[in-house]
Automatic annotation (TrEMBL):
Protein name per Swiss-Prot or TrEMBL: DNTP triphosphohydrolase
Gene Ontology terms: biological process: dGTP catabolic process
Domain of life of the source: Bacteria
One annotated GO molecular function: dGTPase activity
Database matches in InterPro entries: dGTP_triP_hydro_central_sf, dGTP_triphosphohydrolase_C, dGTPase, dGTPase-like, HD/PDEase_dom, HD_domain
Xref: SUPFAM superfamilies: HD-domain/PDEase-like
HD/PDEase domain boundaries: 69-264
Natural source organism: Guyparkeria halophila
Amino acid sequence: MRQDLDSHWRRWLNSDRRRPRSGQGNLLATVPAQTRTAIERDYDRVLFSTPVRRMADKTQVFPLDRSDSVRTRLTHSHEVANLARSVGIDLVFHHGVAAGLPEALRDVPALLATIGLAHDLGNPPFGHQGEDAIARWFEINRAEVLDAEPALSAAMKQDFLRFEGNAQTLRLLTKLQLINDDYGLNLTLASLAALVKYPAASDEIDRSRVTHKKHGYFQSERALMDEVWAGTGLAPGQRHPLTWIMEACDDIAYSVLDAEDAVKKGLLSFSDTIAFLRHEAPDDPVVTAVCDAAAAEHKAYRQERLSPDELNDISMQTFRIRAIGALMEAIGEVFIDSLPAMAEGGFEQELVNASRGGRLLAALKACNWQHAYRHKSVLRVELTGLRVIHGLMDAFWYAITRRDDPDDPASQRSTPLAGYLYQRISENYRRVFESPGNPMPIRYREAQLLTDMISGMTDSFAVSLFEEFREVGFRPTTQA
């Protein structure tokens, strides 16, 4: 079986890039051997890209939070990358994963770190509420924006009515970065395949399947996905095995660390958290072991001269260490057992839920939902985000569609206000939209330029731009 899996790993770790080297002449003969593998260079390409820096001002849970100790999308993504890389190191050095490929010792951890860092890049401002706001705008304006255009297929419409940050991540890295060609950061086929959490189009969503409950690419990237699947030996619609690990590390990171942030914000205490978990899963051995260990350390900390905030803070730090350790160990075990099924496309469970850590993760999610995600302070700012995004979408839609020649995206805007607003759209996004080589229908391209721009914004920039547009006289029309 290991030999059979090694043949799979050769395809799964395909380090070819979509854009071949060209125009180098004899220069390659003078270039020293690379000290990094191609997949290690993928991580560096993502790390130094502009969208990564923008995540420092994008919401994780608490929008527009003024505390520098509460996590943003950037800190969350670095934490996911760290956890995923750690699992990869354990798999290749202690469990013999891909043992027939010496380069896997470096490539498996590097690939997991890359997709962990990149997995949230396409998320719009204000977190998942931003995704909902974009989809709601298209639903409200569906008759005029989508249904009135016969060139749009049902699947094309669903790309926007079910707008998905995961699909935007793939588009961002393959189309919207490095503006001179159609390859973006030109990542390896292995990284692109593993990045796609949901290997389904918007018209292929099946909520009964973990891998298809959302969509992971837009119609504009459908041909790209066929190329990626063919290059990595995956069947169309099949998830890359390492994606299961990234998904699990994402779940672990946000579930454990959102609980830590909720305590830091004073929404509940360490003792409240432990009591909730014990009540939610009183007979689960993993929950009991983690809570017992954290509670014992909490009892010891009480002997110190600590303020209530300090006591909560240090106790949650030790809880975080215990909880993450238990969950990481659990997913490593189940991944090894499930890898043959993954190779055949027959695994359809979330990795943590299939492990002995499943009840701990479920209890943490329930605690966060009740005490953090639905807290009035979070809901109030979510409303601000909805109003801002809808206002910006109204403004940009006006700017995109008010032009002299409807068939020429690059033609002059027909009003001074439309011209001003259009110039506020990022130049590289406009270039992709206006490109004569863009094969998508004009209306699809217009809607996609709108979502490209909104998704690329940070929380603070979105708010300031919304106020700027109001100052120059634009008034939103969509009612949230």
